[in-house]
């Protein structure tokens, strides 16, 4: 297996119903008793052994450079969209992440042929072999639900496990379903699954009560093969929506307005193949910018689209960090600086991203003065607060607001990642803390940060993964 721990295995190497055995610190995704078609190929990743943890000796300023990978939140819907066509499609800059492994397993169960070559995926789906995304996958990753739009559009039917809530909120899917119903799908619920049927979807005008990223993507994917025009109003404007629309248009779809509040989609009869490079991960890049700030380092974060990071950059500058744009990326230089508290309110793009809230809270915990952080996107995204408090942070929660009173420094201890960005925040806190920090439940972190340990080590951090 390559060192990155990202590979396809054939069913021949796995006894039915048992985890696959691999060399190195790897635990295979359990295949349970899924039908053989779903067992053919799976990804395995580092970081899933029950007792694995990340250990950090804090206090080392980050320096040098770190390159951001392709965006998780762009590649997941794009991978779901490959179901819309026989292909072939080639995706470049695909990050080696647990979530990518999960969606690939879902696609393979549905008939996709996927070949991985370094950070490229070659995908073709000559014919769909099913129309179901089972609970075993959806419970591991909510974004599996994004196959619903493509399946409805191409197969006329979809059976998807209900995703349920997660650590950051209840996360209903009503807006996705409202969109499918408006396009003419007949939707039924039963036994933990949603089923939808449509002979051919019909274009419609759909107003989203909230600019949901997932609903915008799912409806857009369903509408590309619908009969006539679909208009999505109050659509999400995130860069990942634009990347998905660009990918779909390169397959032959006719989408206009992605990245604005109104998206117009003229349905076509079929789509072809294309090669597409995934945009850089703005949240991963933002996490490293904050890592440099919290350690008072001097770091160049490469492979960024500066425009996508505007709210993050603005808040870092407001806190007193030095940021400059260079040919290869964004430099943050905080050597010898005292940073001050700032107020933050998470909002849909182009507002401050909820996926950066926890990391900023870690930074503001050690900034001078008081910061008010208001989380408006998810109702329960403060699970990191108690863990940060265990490291010495002074934070009070009042409803959807956290009041952070900056302290002179944090102290390392054992802490637990409760979700992906909570885990990232604890890593950042550990990089700045005095002494040793142990972060457990690191499978959450592996969902969204490619080669986190290696990247941070190369920038001077004393960090390692241990069992
Ligand atoms: C894989 C992916 O891209 N994940 C991102 C995506 O998640 P996701 O697409 O799930 O986020 P949404 O934008 O849909 O959710 C935003 C809010 O809308 C609510 N809602 C959503 C759908 C719905 O049908 N009904 C409803 O009420 C959610 O509960 C939440 O409170 O956008 C979020 C908001 O930027 C990010 O934090 C996630 O990292
Ligand atoms: C919340 C996130 O992802 P997901 O929507 O896949 O849970 C995230 O990336 O921070």
UniProtKB/TrEMBL annotation:
It is found in: Cytoplasm. It is an enzyme of class 2 (transferase). Phosphoenolpyruvate binds at residues 72-73. Belongs to the EPSP synthase family. MurA subfamily. It comes from Desulforamulus hydrothermalis Lam5 = DSM 18033. This is UDP-N-acetylglucosamine 1-carboxyvinyltransferase. The gene is murA. Its main location: cytoplasm. The active site is at residue 166. Pathway: Cell wall biogenesis; peptidoglycan biosynthesis. UDP-N-acetyl-alpha-D-glucosamine binds at residues 142, 171-175, 355, 377. The modification 2-(S-cysteinyl)pyruvic acid O-phosphothioketal is found at residue 166. One of its GO terms (cellular component) is cytoplasm.
